[in-house]
Amino acid sequence: MSEVKVNKISPRTACGTVTLGDSGDTFTIPSGATITNNGTQTGFGRTGTVDWQTDSIKTATFTATSGEGYFANTTGGVFNMNLPAGAAGSIVAVKDYLNTFDSNALTIVPNGSDKIGGTNANYEVTTESLSLTLIYVDATRGWVDVHESTQAVKGATYMTATVSGSCNTLANCGNYKIATFKGPGTFCVSSIASCATNNIVDYAVVAGGGAGPATGGGDGISGGGGGGGFRFYANTTTNPQTGPAAPINNFPSGTAITVSATGYPITIGGGGPKGTAPSGWSNGSDSVFSTITSTGGGRGGRGDPSPTGQDGGSGGGGDNGDAGGSGNTPATPIAQGTNGGGAPGVSAGGGGGGALVAGTAGANPSGGPGGDGAGITGFGTTGQSCGGQYYFSGGGGGGNRSPTGSNGYSGGGGSGTVIIRYKYQ
After folding, report:
1. Which of residues 42 and 319 earns the better pLDDT score?
2. 13-22, 88-97, 183-192, 210-219 — which is least confidently predicted?
3. Nearest to 356 by CA among 252, 264, 269, 245
4. For the segment 256-268, what is each residue's pLDDT rounded down to a tens digit?
């Protein structure tokens, strides 16, 4: 065997080419040898393999490096693998370390405007024990899966989300999921959709209703409690609101909320507790989702020292010849409620305002009915058909010196609710 030992092989001329062997020859690189690329090269180097990083099991969000493979352990919760900036031939790989991707997903996030499988969107890995090898091809396809896999790797067309809280639910309704919050919790968006329109959610945010009538104090008259503020959005192109008591903010549909991949804490307002005259009863509490706050309903007025209905999402009814409270307080772009009815006389309280209809003034000897709440379709709650019409934020009836008083109207109730609807298929 011949042996040649040199430190450098250079071409004969400055622009020449050095040829090693002839076509068909084989060159063997000994084990442990290192090849260093100090400049741009083509047709040489990696051919679809990665160096697996066995000394660093990933348990939290990290940024991948081209040429490396990672073991991802999601037993502690979901996290992201951020891809490097795409360049033709870049390669990364990942493996489900403890077979938990089905319960705690790994989300693969492209860099900037790069694509995954032709779509500029995150990809959520939800298959137990899955291995993925991704190679960046070009700007059209972006990162493409070249590993034997049980699913096609592509950015999601629709968003995915979960809910937390013991009394909160997530249910299917046709092509939509409906998250219903009856208590505090979080609407957690796991990944967003590649189609921006599908990241706009529909919602109904209902605050707690105001208290009234109160008891005791020797006076059986008081104004009805105002309905909790009602704020609503629905895509009127695909989800028109029609029928009796359709929300007044149907056209336009209120304030649109575009979600991102994060958690949205939900606040549910309670109904105002009743008291014993001349004090103790109160307004309802606010409900909150993202930038949307619905204000608690105003409590009803009662004799001295507080005959005026209080302001709120909808105003409370007045008493003892005084006025009802103002609704839509504080003001929202599209009114969240109406005014409470007054009490022209002293023997009948005014009805509390509702989402769509103001409370009726009391008229001797009858207390004024509460105002009508909003009826919405396609926002069914647990145990109810998703296609039915349900009422929210009705006003309470005014008192009239009898045990029963007047009627509250459609949708009357105490505690608030938050309902979020989004397309998932």
Report:
1. 319
2. 210-219
3. 245
4. 899 998 999 999 9
CB 272 within 8 Å of CB 209: yes
Handedness of CA 329, 334, 340, 342 (dihedral sign): positive
Specify the CATH number of the domain 51-145. 2.60.120.640
Q: What is the pTM of this model?
A: 0.64
Bridge partners for 200 per DSSP: 258
Q: Strands (DSSP E) along 160-278, which ranges?
A: 160-163, 169-173, 176-181, 185-191, 200-206, 230-233, 257-258, 263-267
Distance CA 401, CA 398 (A): 10
Are 227 and 212 contacting, i.e. CB atoms less than 8 angstroms apart? no
The number of C-alpha atoms within 13 Å of 193 and in the hemisphere containing its C-beta is 18
Domain ranges of the chain: 51-145, 157-425
Q: Which amino acid is at 285?
A: S
- Length of the chain equals 425
The candidate with the shortest Cα–Cα distance to 366, out of 351, 350, 352, 348, is: 348
The pair of structure tokens assigned to 294 is 């619905």
